[in-house]
Amino acid sequence: MRTVASLIRHAAGCLASALVCGMLLAPAPAAAGPCGPYFNGDIPDCEPQVQAPIPYSGWETQGWAYYCTGDHPYFWGLSSSYPGDFTWDNSCFSGIEDVFGETQANKFDGTFTNWCLNTQSIVVTLGCSRQPPPGFGPACNYVGGPVGDPGCPASNIQNHCSSTNPPVCFQTSSETCSNGTSYSCTTDLAITWCYQCQ
User: Fold this and answer.
1) 113-126: per-residue pLDDT in tens?
2) Longest dimension (CA), the chain
3) What is the DSSP string of 46-71?
4) Which residues of 127-150 are buried (b: 16+ CB within 10 A; e: fewer)?
């Protein structure tokens, strides 16, 4: 005859076995990769681009910039309503996109924290597209450092604002001068600086 304690142990063992079997047989949840799927459609002509590994000490936080390159030079990201256009490979980390640091159409800017106590490396993968995100013109390969506003006609004017109250905003644009020289410009706090494009 079994005691009440042995019946409880037997029932607990059966319940644990059933839970393990249920987890093993349950389908894995679908997770979006850097190219989608997204609620508003997939990023067109998107390819994942794996970035170089970056080491972080335990509990270290760093801001880092990554770039889409080659024949898929455009990063869409949060400013184009595609949150999560990036993934990382290490569960020790949390990460967030810093949209205000993304001043070029090929740039992803993020802040990552290693929550593990020991040194870990993170490999970020970006979803990169052949097509520019809405509001951005062709990619600009910079020549030299920042210069003052050349005052040429502007196009592809895009306002970027935070969702805070009051909003914090900056503006990006392309400028093309009469001699054919083009610039990628940013205006913040009524100050404009530009980079000459190659």
Assistant:
1) 999 999 999 999 99
2) 98
3) EEEEEPPPEEE-TT-EEEEEEE--TT
4) bbbeebbeebbeebeeeeeeeebe
Retrieve residue 108's tokens.
């992803």
Q: How far is Cα 162 from Cα 100, in angstroms, rounded to an integer?
A: 8
Residue 171 class from Cβ within 10 Å (0-12 exposed, 13-18 middle, 19+ buried)?
Answer: middle
Cα–Cα distance between 97 and 21 in angstroms, integer? 38
pLDDT on residue 117: 97
Give me the amino acid identity at 26.
A
Pair type for strands 124-129 and 86-88: antiparallel
Q: 79, exposed or middle or buried, with CB in 10 Å at 0-12, 13-18, 19+?
A: buried
Predicted model pTM: 0.58
**Three-state SS for 21?**
helix
> Averaged over 45-61, what is the pLDDT?
96
Q: Return d(Cα 30, Cα 45) in angstroms, integer.
A: 21
| 150-187: pLDDT as tens digits | 999 988 887 877 667 787 788 888 899 999 899 988 88
Question: Hey, what amino acid is at 92?
Answer: C
Question: Length of the chain, please?
Answer: 198
pLDDT band for position 24 (cuts 50, 70, 90): very low
